[in-house]
Structure formats: structure tokens, C-alpha cells
Amino acid sequence: MSSNNRNNPGDSLLFGAASGTTFKLLSIERVCESPPEIRGERTFLVPDSLVLVIAEASEGRLVLDGRYYPLKAGSVFLGRPGQLLELGLHEERGLGVYVLRLQAADLSIFPAQGDICLAPSAVAIGLCEKMAGCLKDGSMAERLRGEAAFYELLSLIARQREHETAVALECARRELENHFTEEITVKRLADTAGLSRYHFMRLFKEKFGKGVIDYLTDLRLAQAKKWMEAEPGLSLRQISHRVGYKNESYFSSIFKKKTGFSAAVYIQNRQMKVAAYSWVNIGQLLALQVIPFAAPTDHYWTDEYRQKFAFEVKIVLSHQYDYNREALRQARPDRIVAIEGLIEEEERARLRDIAPSLFLPMELSWREHLRLTAEFLDMPAAAERWLEHYERRLEEFGRKSSFSGDRVLAFGVCRHKLLVWGRRAGSLLYDDLKWRPALRIDEFPSWTKEVDANRLSEFEADRLLLHVGEDAVSQQTWRLLERSAEWNGLKAVQNGSVQPLKNCSWFDCPWNEYNAYRFGQWLDEML
């Protein structure tokens, strides 16, 4: 990490806003870092005061207490004292974030959770630059200019928070959260917001990340899970009625669709508190229908786990030994499941002192991981049932497949990189489905290999399974490749044998999803 413009003026800025609220700027720091590798070091901040994090980079991430937020130029985050902030910046070298330490008596103008995005972003970033430069100078005139810039930044944040549409949507959301157990319609909520039904539904999804009906369903299921935990003697019929479903069967089907488990299995398996120490361990547990009690949820390639299991994951883990150890010591889990090669031997010993722990060797197959995890949790039969069901689905897919001896290559466009999957990453394709791998696959590392466009023809692939990242950089890289002579000269392209790899956002990091749950889910999607 590199940082500059760290300013700690002898007398902090202090002024009263029009409302009489007092704000004090304690310091401002510009933080930059080079793009980390997937397994690289992370930058951690633990503020001793309120902090505003204002992004000038349009790529990267901020993980706040284990919760993942993508960075956008002009986005503003509020961090509180003692919260763990993890910063990761991508490829915009020289760009980073501004970190403002401050005191404020009234936090209503700041985002309560997540971020707000100031537009135009250049104005907010320019004000941060002005503050940093003025405070560094130290003269009275420059300090006054810095105060004015700070005041203007606060006014921008306040103006954004007071934006009429945002306020209207927030009112509708509160109406939904206060009355979700009742018969509540989209029209009623749109009327509350003063918007047309269509406009309201579109803006609601943009603002809150999910549609109105999905939001309502999630509220009801979250409350149902609370009742299951707080009053285990309640019947499913009683719970479904309490949360707004008159039909118990419909409630049960929605519950299974959303969680992946029947309500009865969910209740039974929640009795054991299991910690999944790393990302990959989560899927090993989910295949056994066990939702981890503690786990990292800052997956940068998907928000699936955050959306589906936010209630169940009571302890959000990070990627820092001390933080995780203290969190687990206080939570007292019944079991800990981890990957041996990702944790140092001394730390593994400390975790064993907290709870019985299983450390899975990474070189083992995902099937062996599943069986070892099931044995550790005294659930060996559950693993065998899952594997039997998986084998039946493989047979079903084999009857439908028309690849018949074609050489297959899994190929991905991930930002500026062109990647192919090695044998281990593509084990579902090459080992389970018995598809014939393209030439040279076994020469590569087991996970991924970066290749040049002019070397793609060397694989002699009859079929290409193509993944293109959804981010702007990947899309631009793909547009350039798609028009190139190298791409259009490939046999698979000329024969129209290029198929999309759907729902494969983890293409560039297959080791993070090398587990039974993800492989089973992926096979279902292919079927």
C-alpha cells in the first residue's frame, strides 16, 4: 500500500452547519495500492473514529466488517470506530480512495449501510483533492479554503440523501418492511412513493438490488427463520400464517426454492454451529444441507451467498487471523472446517483450541472433500446420497449431450486476460461428463492458464465453452477479440460451435468454488 497527503492539522477543522450540527475533520488521507493478485495481500484499516471513504477509482472493492461493496468513482461509505475495513483496488494505477477521519453529532446525512454515489463524481473528488492540498499547506488562507471544500462535500452528500426519488423509494421500502405480513400490493407501494407502477418497480430494483416481490419474499422468509430459531415448537402452518402466507404448501415450496432445503431439514441442521473458514468450505457444507454459522461472505465474484444466507451466517469472517480467531473464540462454534494449505500450522493449532477442526488438503478432489467433511460432521450418509443423486444427473446429461468425441476447451475473457481452464478446474467437463479435452490441456497448471489470442488455434478445439465477464473491461476485451482474425480463424468459431458458459462468474478463480455444491448447481443449470 502507498499513501500520501496524510494531514493531521494541529487544530482540526471545526464549524457548525446551518442546522447547528457540529462537524470536525480530524485528518484526510489518500490511499492507493497496486492491483493485488487473487491470493495477494490485503489492506486492512481499523478506524479509531468515524471515517468517510470516498472513491476516486471506478474499479475495486471495499469490505466493511466482512460485507463486500464494489467501488464506483464518487461512491461514499461511512465507517464507524472499530469496524474492520478491507480495501482492494484493481488496475487503475494511481487512483485510490480518500479516507476522511471526522467527528459528527448527526449521522443522518451519511449512508447508514452501503454507499451513496455523488454525481458528478469529479466534483466530489476535486473537493477531496482541494482539502488535502489546502491542509498540507498549513497557512490560514489555505485552511479556510479546506474548510470550505469540506463544507461543500457535506452539502453534496446531504443533497444526494435528500433526493426526492430516493426518499420516496425509502418510504415505500419502510412501508413494505412494516407491513410485510399483510396483504400488500405493488400498487399500494407505488402510490406511497408517488410513482407509476412500472417506474416504481424499475427504480425499486435499481435501488435495492432486487424486485419488490423478491424483497417481500425475503422479508417473510427471514422472519420465518427467526420464528424457527426463537420458538422451535411452532408448526410450519403457524409460521407460514404468521409471516403472511395462507397456504402452508406454498410457503414450503418458496422456502425450499429460496434456501435449497426443506424447512424440516433446515431446522434440524441448524442445531450444529459450523464455521466455514474459507470461501470454498461454504459449498462443502451446503451440499450436506448445512448452512455455516460463521463464514466469509465477501465473495467478489458473486453476491449469491450474501443474499441467500445473510440471516444464518451470524459471524462474518474476514481474511485476517487475529480477527477471525477472536470472533470464533467468542462465538464458540461446534466445528471448524478449513483448507489446510491456506492456514499456517501455528494458526491451525490455535483454531483446534477453539473447537474440533478439519483441515482439508487442497490436493484432494472435491468428492474427497465432501466425504471427509461429512464424516467430520457425523453425516456420511448425507454425502453418499448427494453423490448418488449427482451421478444420476450425470447419466441424464450424458444421454442428452451431442458432443460425441469433439475436443472441448473452456475459455474465458476476464478483464484484460484470456484464460483457459486446466484439468482440475474443468473436472466436471473432462472427468465427470467425459468430454474430450482440447490438446495441451494436461500440459497446463491444474487451474487456469493465461494465453494469447494467436495461440488459441494450438488447442485444436472443436467446441469452445465461452465465459465473458460482465464488467466493462472484460466486455471491451471481448469486443476486440470477437473482431480479430485470430478468433474468426478458429475451427470452432467457423463451425458455429461456441457455447456460452452461463452463471460462471468464478471462471478466473475456480479454486474458490471447487466444491460439491457449486458443481451440482452448475450441472443442474447445464441440464
From TrEMBL:
Keyword annotations for this protein? DNA-binding, Transcription, Transcription regulation
Q: Which domain of life is it from?
A: Bacteria
**In what residue span(s) does the Fe/B12 periplasmic-binding domain sit?**
273-527
Limits of the HTH araC/xylS-type domain: 170-269
Q: Transcription: is it a keyword of this entry?
A: yes
Q: Does the keyword Transport apply?
A: no
Which lineage? Answer: Bacteria, Bacillati, Bacillota, Bacilli, Bacillales
Concerning InterPro entries, the annotation shows: ABC_transptr_periplasmic_BD, Homeodomain-like_sf, HTH-like, HTH_AraC, HTH_AraC-typ_CS
Q: Tell me what this protein is called.
A: AraC family transcriptional regulator
Q: Which organism was this protein described from? A: Cohnella cellulosilytica
